[in-house]
Amino acid sequence: MTTSTRCASAPAVLVLEDGRTFRGRAYGAVGETFGEAVFSTGMTGYQETLTDPSYHRQVVVMTAPHIGNTGVNDEDPESERIWVSGYVVRDPARTPSNWRSRRSLDEELTAQGVVGISGIDTRALTRHLRERGAMRVGIFSGAAVADETTLLAKVQAAPQMKGADLSGEVATTETYVVPAIGTKRFTVAAIDLGIKGMTPHRMAERGIEVHVLPATATAEDIYAVGPDGVFFSNGPGDPATADHPVSLMRAVLERSTPLFGICFGNQILGRALGFGTFKLKYGHRGINQPVQDRTTGKVEVTAHNHGFAVDAPLDAPSDTPFGRAEVSHVCLNDNVVEGLRLLDRPAFSVQYHPEAAAGPHDAAYLFDRFVSLMEGQRA
C-alpha cells in the first residue's frame, strides 16, 4: 500500500479483479491499496471491525450506507492499529456526533494511512460480490488513478487470500499477561493468531489470568505458565497454511488440557482432528449471522469474520485421533460448520466471535462453558 497527503476532492476508483469498476471520491488516505474485497453487514461497530486483526489484507465494504456518524474514540479499538487494507463506504458522515468521539473516522483513516473510497453504490458492489464471490480488489485515488487496463493488471498481480499465511504478521511477538479481575480462579494460555483485546478481557471478567503467547509459541511455552486451559484465537489467512498451530493444538489435545478455540482457532481444531478446510464463496462477516447451538437448540445472533470453513460431517459424530467429535453449531443461512466439540476430551470451538466487540452478546455463555471445562478438569 502506498499513500500520500489527503485531498478531500481527490477522485478515486475501485477496480475488482474481474474488471468491474466503481468511481467515487477519496476517503481517508490518498494513494493505492490492494486486498480481498469482502462485505460486512454490521450497521455499527465499525471501529472494532477496522481494528480486528482478522481483517488483515482485506478491503471491507460496509453494506450500511451511512458510516462514521459516531466518530472514533480511544476506548473501542480491538488492537493497537487499523488492520484492514482498504475501506469502502457510501455516505460518510460529514460531522461525527457522540460524547466519546475524539476525531472523525476520515481523520483516523488518514492518520493511519488507510486508503478508502466513498460515494459509490455499495449496494451494487455487495450484490456483485454476493454473486461472483470475494475477490481481489484495488482502490486508487489522486495520482494513483490511471487507465483501467493498467489498474486491472495491478489488481490481478496482487496476492490471493487462498494460500496466505498471515497469522504471524498480526500476532504479538512477546508474551504478555492480562490479569484476572477480582479473585484469580484459573490460568489460561492464549495463543495469539490475531486476538482481539476484548477476548482476554472477557476471560479476565471470569477470574481468569490470561497469558497471551505469540503464534510461534511451543508446547513447552504453553505449559511453562501452568495453564488450567488453553485458548486459540481468531486470526487472518488460510488455515491450510497453519501447520505450526495445528501441531501445537494436537500437543494440547494429547494432554487433555481444556481447550477453547474461536474463528481461526475453530479451523485449527478441525485440522487437528483430521478434517479439511475450504474457502467459502464470499464468507460470513458482520454482526448479525444466525447460528444454532445444536447441543441446546438455541439460535444465536453472532458476529463473524471468516472466509474459510471446516469440512466436517453434520449428520453424526466422527472418529478422530482424539476420540469422537461432532459439529456443535451450524449457520442457519447455509449449513456451514460453526462449531466443533470433542465428546471424549474437554475441547470445543466456534467459528464466530463471542466477545461481542462489536456485536450481540448471545454467545457470551461460551466463556462460561470454557470455565466449566476447567472446573471439571480440576475436580
If you average the pLDDT, what whole number results? Answer: 95
Estimated radius of gyration: 21 Å
- Please state the overall shape, judged from the principal axes of the Cα atoms: globular
Any low-confidence stretches, pLDDT <50, length ≥5?
A: none
Termini separation comes to 53 Å
Report a brief summary of the structure.
This protein has ten helices and 21 strands. By secondary structure, it is of the alpha/beta class. Helix 8 packs across helix 9.
Explain how this protein is built.
- With 379 residues, this protein is an alpha/beta fold.
- It is 22% helix and 34% strand.
- It has helices at residues 46-50, 105-111, 122-132, 148-157, 167-170, 198-204, 219-224, 243-254, 264-272, 365-378, and strands at 2-4, 11-16, 21-28, 30-40, 58-62, 66-67, 86-88, 91-92, 115-118, 135-141, 176-178, 186-191, 208-213, 229-232, 259-262, 276-293, 299-311, 318-320, 323-331, 337-342, 347-350.
- A hairpin with a 5-residue loop joins β19 (323-331) and β20.
- α8 packs across α9 (264-272).
- The protein is globular and about 65 Å long.
Itemize the secondary structure elements and their pairings.
Elements: E1 2-4, E2 11-16, E3 21-28, E4 30-40, H1 46-50, E5 58-62, E6 66-67, E7 86-88, E8 91-92, H2 105-111, E9 115-118, H3 122-132, E10 135-141, H4 148-157, H5 167-170, E11 176-178, E12 186-191, H6 198-204, E13 208-213, H7 219-224, E14 229-232, H8 243-254, E15 259-262, H9 264-272, E16 276-293, E17 299-311, E18 318-320, E19 323-331, E20 337-342, E21 347-350, H10 365-378
Parallel strand pairs: 4-5, 5-7, 6-8, 7-9, 12-13, 12-14, 14-15, 15-21
Antiparallel strand pairs: 1-4, 2-3, 2-10, 3-9, 4-10, 11-13, 16-17, 16-19, 18-19, 19-20, 20-21
Helix pairs in contact: 8-9
